[in-house]
Specification:
heterodimer, A: mainly alpha, 12 helices, B: mainly alpha, two-stranded antiparallel ribbon, about 75% helix
C-alpha cells in the first residue's frame, strides 16, 4: 500500500517535470523578450518588468522590423495555398478512394512519396520556373510551389477519410441519377468535413513554417513570411540582439499557440490517421 | 448498371484526378527531373558559366571531404535522434497511459513544439543554451553540475542538435504510440495479469510487441524527415563550428543559395533524393503491411 503511494507520488512528480521541460523554454523566451539588450546578461533574469522596455521591444519587432507585415504575408500565403490545395486534392482523393483503376495503390504511394522528397532538391528548379513565369519575388510565386508541397499529404489524409464513408451512399445517389461529380459535391463534402479540417491544418502548419524554398523565391523585405523574417536575424557578420530575437520568438509562437488551442484534437487525429487504424 | 460501365468510370477518373495529377507533374515531378538535369552541368549564374560536364559533379562529390562529413553528420543525426525519440516517445506514451489526473494537459503542452517554426526553435535553444547567460547552464550550475559549451564545443555541437531535434519531435512518436495504446484491447493486459505476469514481463512480452508496428512506422516516418533537416541547423548552429553540424540539406542549400553553384548543389541534393526514395520504399512496405492487417 505504502509502496503504491510512493509510486503514485513519484509518477505525479515526473508528470510535473515533463510539463516543465515541455513548457519552461517558452516562459524563459517570454521573459527575455521583456528585457533590454544589456539585461540579457543577467542570469537568472529578474522579474521586475519595465513597461516602456516591453513596448519598445515589441514595437521594434512588429513595426520597425516588419513582423506585422510578415505575419500578414504568412496568413495570405497559407490561406491561399490551403484553399487551392483542397480544391485540387479533394476530387483526386475521392477518386482514389472510390473508383478502382489499375495500380491504384501504387499511384497513391507515388503521390505520398513526393511528400518525403528533400525540398532542397527542387528549390533551384522552382526558382528558375518562377522566374520563367515572371513570378519570382511575388506571393503567388510562393503559393504555387507550396500547393505542390501540400498536395501529397492532403490527398493522402483525405483518402483515409473518404474510405471511412460507406460506399452505399454513393451507389444510392448514383441510382438517383447523380453524376460522380454531383455525388462528391452534394453528398460527400459535408461528410468528409473533418478530413478537410485535418488536412488543412497539416498543410497550414507546413506552409506557415516553410523556409528553404521561400528563401530562394522571395528577396523583397515586404514579401517575407515569418520564417524568412526570423532567419533575417541570423547572420554571420553581426551578433544577434537576443532581446529582439526572443521577442521575435514570442511573436511567432503566439499565433501557433492560439491555433493549437483550437485545433489540438484534429492534430492528434491527423497524426494518428497515418499510423493507426 | 450505368456506374459499372468502363467508359463512364474512365471519364470520371480523368475528370477527378487530372487536376491534381497535372499539378503534381508540373510542379513536383518536373522540378525533380529538372534538378537531375542541372546536376550534369557546371552552372553558376554569378560567373555565367554553363557547360555540360556529365557525371563530373558526382565524381567531385566522391572526393569532397565536406560532402562526406555532411553525410556522416546526417547519418549520426538520423540514427541518434530516432533512437532517443523512439525510446523516450514510447516511454512517455506508456506513462500517459497511466491516465494520471492532469496528464491530458501536459500532453497538450507537448504537442506545441511540433507546430513551431523550426528556425525559431533553433534560435530559441541557441538562447537557452548560451554558455554565458543561458538558463540551462545556470540551472546546471545551481545543481552543481558541469556547464557544457553546447553548440560551441566541437565534441558536443552535433549532440546538441540531436537533443534539440528530440525536444521538438519526441512528442510525434508519443502521439502515435499513445493512440495505438488506446486502441489495444484491454483484456489482453488483464489476461496477462491474471496469468501472474509481472508488469515488466507484460510490457516486454505483450505490450511492446503489439506496439511494434506503430513504433516502426513512426520511426521510419521521422527518419526521412530528420534526414532532410535544414531549418533547425540554420537557426541553432548554422552548420558550425567548422562543418561539424553541416547536414546534407544544409550543404546543398549553402552550395546553391550562397555560392550559386547550381550544378554541384543539384548533385548533392540528388544523392539525397535517391536515399529518400529508398527509405520511402521501406515506409511504403510498412503501409502495405498495415493495410493488409486492417483487412
Amino acid at each position: 500500500m505504502i509502496t503504491r503511494r510512493i509510486e503514485r507520488a513519484f509518477a505525479y512528480l515526473l508528470l510535473v517535470l515533463i510539463g516543465i521541460i515541455g513548457f519552461a523554454p517558452f516562459v524563459v523566451i517570454l521573459l527575455l523578450s521583456t528585457k533590454a539588450r544589456i539585461e540579457i546578461l543577467q542570469v537568472p533574469p529578474t522579474l521586475d518588468f519595465d513597461i516602456d522596455q516591453i513596448v519598445s521591444n515589441y514595437r521594434n519587432v512588429l513595426i520597425d522590423r516588419g513582423f506585422l507585415g510578415y505575419t500578414l504575408n504568412s496568413i495570405v500565403v497559407t490561406t491561399l495555398t490551403v484553399i487551392v490545395a483542397l480544391l485540387v486534392a479533394t476530387p483526386a482523393a475521392y477518386a482514389f478512394s472510390r473508383i478502382p483503376f489499375r495500380r491504384r495503390d501504387g499511384w497513391a504511394n507515388t503521390v505520398l512519396s513526393l511528400r518525403f522528397m528533400p525540398a532542397v532538391a527542387v528549390a533551384i528548379p522552382i526558382l528558375l520556373m518562377m522566374r520563367f513565369l515572371d513570378l519570382d519575388d511575388t506571393l503567388p510565386g510562393l503559393v504555387i510551389p507550396y500547393v505542390a508541397f501540400s498536395l501529397p499529404l492532403v490527398i493522402w489524409i483525405l483518402i483515409g477519410f473518404f474510405d471511412e464513408i460507406p460506399r452505399e451512399l454513393d451507389d444510392a445517389a448514383m441510382v438517383d441519377g447523380c453524376s460522380r461529380f454531383r455525388v462528391l459535391t452534394s453528398v460527400m463534402l459535408p461528410l468528409v468535413r473533418p478530413g478537410l479540417i485535418v488536412s488543412s491544418i497539416f498543410a497550414a502548419i507546413f506552409i506557415w513554417n516553410e523556409f528553404l524554398v521561400g528563401m530562394y523565391i522571395v528577396n523583397s523585405q515586404s514579401l517575407k513570411t515569418i520564417p524568412l523574417g526570423a532567419a533575417g536575424l541570423i547572420s554571420a557578420q553581426r551578433p544577434i540582439d537576443w532581446n529582439v530575437a526572443a521577442t521575435v520568438g514570442v511573436v511567432t509562437i503566439i499565433p501557433i499557440f492560439v491555433f493549437s488551442l483550437f485545433v489540438q484534437r484534429y492534430i492528434v487525429r491527423g497524426i494518428t490517421a497515418g499510423a493507426v487504424k | 448498371m450505368r456506374t459499372a460501365h468502363p467508359l463512364h468510370t474512365r471519364r470520371d477518373i480523368l475528370l477527378l484526378i487530372s487536376p491534381a495529377a497535372a499539378y503534381l507533374v508540373l510542379f513536383s515531378v518536373f522540378p525533380l527531373v529538372y534538378s537531375l538535369g542541372i546536376s550534369f552541368f557546371d552552372w553558376s549564374p554569378t560567373t555565367s558559366s554553363f557547360t555540360f560536364v556529365g557525371l563530373d559533379n558526382y565524381a567531385m562529390l566522391a572526393r569532397d571531404a565536406v560532402f562526406w562529413q555532411a553525410a556522416v553528420n546526417t547519418g549520426i543525426l538520423v540514427v541518434a535522434s530516432i533512437a532517443i525519440q523512439v525510446v523516450l516517445g514510447t516511454a512517455l506514451a506508456l506513462f500517459f497511459d497511466l491516465h494520471l489526473r492532469g496528464s491530458w494537459f501536459v500532453r497538450g503542452v507537448l504537442i506545441l513544439p511540433m507546430l513551431l517554426t523550426p528556425v525559431v526553435v533553433g534560435l530559441m535553444w541557441r538562447a537557452l543554451l548560451n554558455p554565458d547567460w543561458g538558463m540551462v547552464n545556470w540551472l546546471l550550475g545551481e545543481l552543481g553540475l558541469p556547464k557544457p559549451l553546447w553548440t560551441a564545443d566541437p565534441k558536443l555541437a552535433l549532440v546538441t542538435l540531436v537533443l534539440v531535434d528530440s525536444w521538438q519531435w519526441t512528442p510525434f512518436i508519443m502521439v502515435i504510440v499513445f493512440a495505438r495504446l488506446q486502441a489495444l484491447p484491454r483484456d489482453v493486459f488483464e489476461a496477462s495479469a491474471v496469468d501472474g505476469a509481472g508488469r515488466i514481463a507484460t510490457l516486454r512480452q505483450v505490450t511492446l510487441p503489439l506496439l511494434a508496428p506503430a513504433i516502426a512506422f513512426a520511426a521510419v516516418f521521422r527518419s526521412i524527415d530528420a534526414f532532410r533537416s535544414f531549418d533547425v541547423v540554420f537557426g541553432l548552429t548554422y552548420g558550425g563550428p567548422g562543418r561539424l553540424t553541416t547536414t546534407l540539406s544544409f550543404y546543398a542549400w549553402e552550395t546553391g543559395f550562397s555560392f550559386t553553384r547550381y550544378g554541384y548543389a543539384s548533385a548533392i541534393s540528388y544523392v539525397m533524393v535517391i536515399v529518400a526514395t529508398v527509405a520511402f520504399m521501406v515506409l511504403a512496405a510498412r503501409l502495405a503491411l498495415r493495410r493488409a492487417d486492417a483487412r
